[in-house]
């Protein structure tokens, strides 16, 4: 073979047997130059391979200068034949050249391709179309081409025979294949091969015939082919081109194992590395290595195990008709002998040895990675200069530049490049403002270089890093935090992976506390997503599922708690409650109503509801008020639901089923509804409900201004007509007028154009809140549940309007009755009126009376136990509230207002409407609502 | 109802005509004698000492295939080829074989067929129970002879293991982990020294080439005696997995349900495939901790939820449907059975089950009836 022309060494990329054979052949032939399949632009980088600081696995990275995102990798492992050839050339002082098509063309080509094919272009591939190995393996009677190749090529000991023989045999086989299949469905190969032939000719002119070529075995016949220079040149004519740069980047075995990119994904780089490095007896050495690993992990593995494993592997190979045990046989042997048949330790072996943790290194003298360039470009375009001096930056995310800056900083943070640290926002609590503290430290440049392994652009790298982090994250809260950061960083592409990790963790986490901690962050993310216009469907699904899990797991988790745990659990209940409310809002807004028109409604409705409600505990309304575009339809619903505080009711008319177009509807009649909401709110419960009951006809005289008091009542099963219609058989709290809107809400369906899954989602949200109330009810009624949680549940239900004051009083009476241990009762009180519930006591004297009579009944010896708890509860109130309470208590229970009216009217309000005061509001109301003529029922309150 | 059920065995007790002479369940080597003979005739590969077939032929016997002369070998074990290969190879390397798996994964079945194919005899069997004495593994005495003639080989009653050693056959130990630990350890000498001393006679029985031992054990049961690491080391372990695909499992379940239903003389219930599929799906999802579409993880309950349990759930459901229902297998008929199978630990498993109901079942298309039925029985 020598003398007859160049030495053509056909290999399989990353084949250890090929690498060995290449080394032997080069040693035997001593060529004057070594030509290697690879981009010729990298010729200049070859000397770097001699640098002791360059340690494989590494990869040649080519990227388009103007577009760092467009890039291609040529990875090299220590056992790659190409790497062996490069090293051999460097060690022997022989020039080495890359002879494949320039990366300038490959990258330009990639851009022209449909994206699906883009990556496989650089893939030198067995996996594309005709698989030459599969064809050969099939001919040899193997069903698995990899195994055939291993048996026929990789596992053969090299050296003892003619070092060129394997290459000749392989070239022959490939020749036969090429005759049959031609380019094998890869027309591009022809162009590449033309280029290789041209470069080969040039090399032969320069160095004579004793050059060696290391290339994929598939190309060998083509290089042998006799063609004319003109024909080859013609093939190469007019190829597209981009300006490219190349550099070495560190690589990992794990990345080699991925099946994308260059080289057929080898799934066992660690095993290949072992085969390449082991001087002899590879199986024995491998199994000894496995035993060592298992011992490190405290598994009892003796030498006897290793002996038996080797025997089993050998016999298995014989039985399967293989010349030597391969990875499959050794794995089977390890499983049966060392792992007791279990796959768990085996997974460890696979991860640590078969794939391996090997990380490559690149010297600092290697050219800059594209990530640095990309960062530089973004810094320029966003006018955000890296400065060593610390400074503060205020961002308004509604502007494009600021949003871009925020995204960049968040992405860098994801990558561990701590250029900016988010600080507390000044003044505003809005979700559209961010404060950053910026400071560029010199070592950040190093971090950027390190982060280069993750990708070539900041966005791509951050995404890859986020996905990897999601897979590695320890706790559920870590993953939710990550999800939040992905949204902040504008990486919706990373979300599916993160969400998957999140769903998995949530499903397996048995601690409801963890789930409850995760939910708020997730819901927060949903809202951020809204602000930033990211698609959050996946997020809302996961959040809803998480909520379901909490609903199921919470009741059992609330029993048998000590006081600290109970206190914590109360926090969880509160957090879940808030989250469920916000989630409803977010889910609703995800249905795709017109945000512009509706956001006002949500805001005003929410604000109105809030004002009317006058309680803490919602937060939904206040968010809407910022006009962030969240919470339109459901926002109103939320406001209405939450806003109905027990204090804010007028006369209590008997429950009249009011088929009102319920809270959730209002989206298109935004303007009208808005007005009525703001007008109605001050005097009425359920401002939101009022808003909603103005159906369809925008700007028309409001015919039914008296709120149908949907807010806060039980939402019955969804009738299914409009997406979020709540026909509320409202046990009315407001001064309910049997108001039938003009026509049963014309155009409800149309007014809310649901997304593809719109109705489903909204139904789901309705279900969520209904079920959550069910859970709270369950908590409230179960004696085994810790007192503070029980009290809290009652309170939340009451705030929601789910429990009437009477029912709450009954439950309180039960909880405070003599049979209950005083400490438990005090905990109940803490849960019920703790955290700003003082107003409740001020206004509902019945509740206060219950507390008072319980307290006076506490036996002296128990009083000292109860005192700290009570002090904690009441000390948190505003001084004003405390004083009022004190006055009320001093006045004594007998001095309450008319006891006969107590059952009917809401506390804090008179029995009779004050017609004079109501009339005084009317002109203003009319003005606000734009109603010219006096309508009778506008008098509202006192009807 | 009790009268009705009680009457069923008496009906089946009367043998069907023509079957009176055959055993209720023939040994593997008898049932598949023809296949074994055909394999032996065509098997030209080297056989280990005293093996009736070569390892390759044993694997073929278990996995099924077609011989060069066209004889079709039926598959005895449907599962990964790898497992059978490792098992057979283990026996060929004179290491003992331990078959592990949850109940209903065909451990005993595989061990019987392996013994039949390797040694032509699957009857050298020790059934492991909590009461298995050492004599069952080593040897016992014929006390009449012992008293009359003193200790001698004639007075000795060899165990199946001892006979297998003497004759170079394959011995089987069923449910190894149920045997008390000190009795288990009797096996250590047998497996490592390949000899069984008889101190009373000053003799020993040395294992003849070809001797080997297959043990089966259950790795999910509670209250078993874990193997000592000394003993464990003498075994190569092969874990028999649960059926790989839902389709295969549905197949196994419906086949067994039909057989059991026939033997219990349950009235025929028309097409319960839909419900069987549902039961299998529920079992698989909870067992694997992953929904069938591979998209949602779920928690796994503490029970094993083996195929065998799925079979009993469906059979129970059939009985309900036949005797109390309208004769059609409905969700309600299997719901209670599933609940019983899933919720073994009343606190933890109930949460797991409810979570599964709420997050998976409720959302699933066409499962509304089932969801309702489950809610009803769970409440």
Automatic annotation (TrEMBL), chain A:
<feature type="region of interest" description="Disordered">
    <location>
        <begin position="593"/>
        <end position="763"/>
    </location>
</feature>
<feature type="compositionally biased region" description="Gly residues">
    <location>
        <begin position="599"/>
        <end position="612"/>
    </location>
</feature>
<dbReference type="Pfam" id="PF18934">
    <property type="entry name" value="DUF5682"/>
</dbReference>
<protein>
    <submittedName>
        <fullName>Uncharacterized protein</fullName>
    </submittedName>
</protein>
<dbReference type="InterPro" id="IPR050458">
    <property type="entry name" value="LolB"/>
</dbReference>
<feature type="compositionally biased region" description="Low complexity">
    <location>
        <begin position="635"/>
        <end position="712"/>
    </location>
</feature>
<feature type="region of interest" description="Disordered">
    <location>
        <begin position="890"/>
        <end position="910"/>
    </location>
</feature>
<feature type="compositionally biased region" description="Gly residues">
    <location>
        <begin position="621"/>
        <end position="634"/>
    </location>
</feature>
<dbReference type="InterPro" id="IPR043737">
    <property type="entry name" value="DUF5682"/>
</dbReference>
Automatic annotation (TrEMBL), chain B:
<feature type="region of interest" description="Disordered">
    <location>
        <begin position="1"/>
        <end position="24"/>
    </location>
</feature>
<feature type="domain" description="ATPase dynein-related AAA">
    <location>
        <begin position="97"/>
        <end position="235"/>
    </location>
</feature>
<dbReference type="InterPro" id="IPR027417">
    <property type="entry name" value="P-loop_NTPase"/>
</dbReference>
<dbReference type="GO" id="GO:0005524">
    <property type="term" value="F:ATP binding"/>
</dbReference>
<protein>
    <submittedName>
        <fullName>ATPase</fullName>
    </submittedName>
</protein>
<dbReference type="InterPro" id="IPR050764">
    <property type="entry name" value="CbbQ/NirQ/NorQ/GpvN"/>
</dbReference>
<dbReference type="GO" id="GO:0016887">
    <property type="term" value="F:ATP hydrolysis activity"/>
</dbReference>
<feature type="compositionally biased region" description="Polar residues">
    <location>
        <begin position="1"/>
        <end position="11"/>
    </location>
</feature>
<dbReference type="Pfam" id="PF07728">
    <property type="entry name" value="AAA_5"/>
</dbReference>
<dbReference type="InterPro" id="IPR011704">
    <property type="entry name" value="ATPase_dyneun-rel_AAA"/>
</dbReference>
